[in-house]
Specification:
The complex is a heterodimer of chains A (about 290) and B (about 250). By secondary structure, chain A is an alpha/beta fold. Chain A is about 30% helix and about 20% strand. In chain A, the strands form three sheets. In chain A, strands 4-3-2-1-8-11-12 form a seven-stranded parallel sheet, sandwiched between helices. A three-stranded antiparallel sheet of chain A has the order 5-7-6. In chain A, strands 9-10 form a two-stranded antiparallel ribbon. The longest helix of chain A is centred in the first third of the chain and has 13 residues. The N and C termini of chain A lie far apart (about 45 Å). The relative contact order of chain A is 0.16. Chain B is built from eight helices and 15 strands. In chain B, the strands form three sheets. In chain B, strands 4-3-2-1-5-10-12-13-14-15 form a ten-stranded mixed sheet, sandwiched between helices. Classes of the chains: A alpha/beta (about 290), B alpha/beta (about 250). Chains A and B meet through strand 3, helix 3, helix 4, helix 5 and helix 6 of A and helix 4, strand 9 and helix 5 of B.
């Protein structure tokens, strides 16, 4: 993934955020990235703080537990560590931009951003008149977004990337299909028969996936339904420990740069991670796909 | 008279805005608790919608930090994608939505984006999330905000979520289908758009607060509606419902 790429680091909103990928991109010192997602919680903030980001395309950047993202504020208010360009969207309009990107539409006309100054701050969004209406009828045109790479966390995948996801998915499907490449971070790798037994639970089929990584707890500290609970204390800790650039540097050294990989991160979390593992069982009823 | 906190009064005032059978864009924190109270009292058939892709009947059993947490998905009516849930809004099928904000102005426009000029802001706020979509498309909008002079301002620096824009029928002219803000609930009072200009007026003062105090803490020349009242104190039934939902007493202090 070259510098300057536009990337989706999860698009489910507050769950299944691929923090393992965020950390690795920071370790590799990627630069000039355009981070594209409705909300990716502190993933976006830590990418900004380490100087990986030139542009943010999305609806919300901060810390869902703590409020403001300190690095996002430093970059947008004072140009530290570098100035970033923000392309504002609302959640639905970035959804429509991914939808257009995924299905080959040049743009989607919507009502759902009219009256907002986002139309002024984001010159990509244009006002037009509905050509089918008899009376004046303003619409906003949302052009297609086609990111270079989408990273997504799934509960289970086979070696070919056929993946099962359950729970709410936000814009995962549209953002992934709109992207040139898809990289799957699977909590568990299973035999192909497991995925094939329930094709309705496949959000992204393997033929669209470029790489599969087996990474348990790749979404930590965000939750993964049925696998890992949200580590709320970790989000609060991040908020407290990143108030100034020096303390952020210490945080990112400790939790990202001084660790060789995600396995070391899991080891460092140790018992704290084990407490987040979901041990309970609440299985859905099986669905019968028999043909005869 | 039962004892209650200001936060509890706000939650109950918010719950009273939800009618039975309505589809409500819930959001997090205070509104989700208000939704729970409404379900347990006067609105047992309301439906709660969450933009991440969740629809629920009963509110979640456990404390939520985000709408995407496991307890909000367990036993849901529907877990799906954002487009499916926000598409209900866009399709005109949502009765009301809750939003908060950093600033609101006298026409109930809301700012959660930039303080100062957007090209060179003094403060960059986290941004819109789905709030502009809810403000544009819901049949009516319920706003919750703390009542301070620097929050209730004459004109917001940036309209993230449209209220009544420049007043009157400006929303209609802008092509907005939803009805816009119908009520603003603060920790001191309830404001409503009133008159042909749709300017926010003081409609109800919470017990223990005065009209003068509310006007003093508002950044524009706040007028009152002709039928100004005192916000009715929470009933025992409402407080019992709230305490059933808020088991840990999060909102009681």
């Amino acid at each position: 993934m070259p510098d300057g790429s536009s990337i989706v680091l999860g698009a489910a909103l507050e769950n299944a955020i691929p923090f393992a990928a965020t950390h690795e991109l920071i370790r590799q010192g990627k630069r000039d990235l355009n981070v594209v997602a409705p909300i990716s919680d502190i993933s976006t903030d830590m990418m900004i703080g380490t100087g990986c980001v030139a542009e943010v395309t999305g609806a919300w950047v901060g810390n869902v537990s703590g409020g403001m993202g300190h690095n996002f504020r430093r970059a947008t208010e004072h140009g530290e560590p570098n100035p970033i360009k923000v392309h504002d969207y609302s959640n639905f309009t970035i959804g429509m931009a991914f939808f257009a990107g995924a299905y080959g539409l040049p743009y989607v006309p919507v009502k759902s951003i009219l009256g907002s100054d986002i139309i002024k701050s984001n010159p990509q969004i244009r006002l037009a008149e509905n050509p089918f209406a008899a009376e004046p009828d303003p619409v906003a045109l949302i052009p297609a977004l086609k990111p270079d790479v989408a990273f997504l966390v799934v509960q289970r995948a086979d070696r070919a990337g056929n993946s099962h996801i359950w729970g709410s998915t936000g814009l995962t499907q549209e953002a992934s299909i709109a992207s040139e490449k898809i990289i799957v971070l699977a909590d568990e790798i299973v035999e192909p028969e497991v995925i094939a037994s329930d094709p309705s639970r496949v959000l992204i089929p393997g033929f669209g996936v470029n790489a599969v990584c087996h990474l348990p707890a790749a979404s930590h500290p965000s939750p993964l339904i049925g696998r890992w609970k949200r580590d709320n204390a970790f989000f609060h800790h991040y908020h407290k420990e990143t108030r100034d650039p020096d303390s952020f540097q210490r945080w990112v050294d400790e939790w990202v740069l001084d660790l060789p990989d995600h396995k070391a991160y899991r080891t460092k979390l140790g018992g704290e991670l084990e407490e987040l593992r979901i041990e309970g069982e609440a299985y859905s009823a099986p669905a019968n796909y028999a043909t005869d | 008279m039962h004892k209650y906190s200001t936060q509890e009064l706000m939650i109950i005032a918010a719950a009273r805005q939800i009618n039975d059978g309505e589809r409500i864009f819930v959001g997090m924190r205070l509104p989700i608790t208000a939704y729970g109270v409404a379900r347990l009292t006067h609105a047992p058939n309301a439906v709660g919608l969450f933009e991440s892709g969740v629809a629920r009947y009963e509110p979640a059993e456990d404390m939520l930090y985000t709408m995407c947490d496991g307890p909000n998905q367990f036993g849901a009516a529907w877990t799906t994608g954002l487009i499916q849930i926000m598409g209900l809004l866009s399709g005109g099928r949502v009765h009301a939505g809750f939003i908060g904000g950093a600033e609101i102005d006298r026409f109930a426009n809301i700012n959660t984006s930039y303080i100062g000029d957007f090209e060179n802001p003094t403060t960059k706020l986290p941004g819109s999330g789905g709030a502009p979509d809810i403000a544009a498309m819901a049949e009516r909008l319920i706003v919750i905000i703390n009542h301070q002079k620097h929050r209730l301002v004459e004109k917001v620096d940036f309209i993230t979520s449209p209220g009544h824009l420049t007043g009157g029928d400006a929303r209609k002219k802008a092509g907005l289908p939803g009805g816009g803000p119908s009520v603003v609930i603060t920790d001191r009072a309830i404001l409503r758009p009133h008159g042909p200009e749709n300017e926010l007026h003081l409609a109800s003062v919470h017990p223990g607060h005065t009209v003068e105090e509310v006007i003093e803490n508002t950044g524009w020349d706040l007028k009152t509606t002709p039928d100004l009242e005192e916000t009715p104190a929470p009933t025992k039934e409402e407080l019992d419902a709230l305490h059933r939902i808020d088991k840990e007493g999060f909102w009681r202090s």
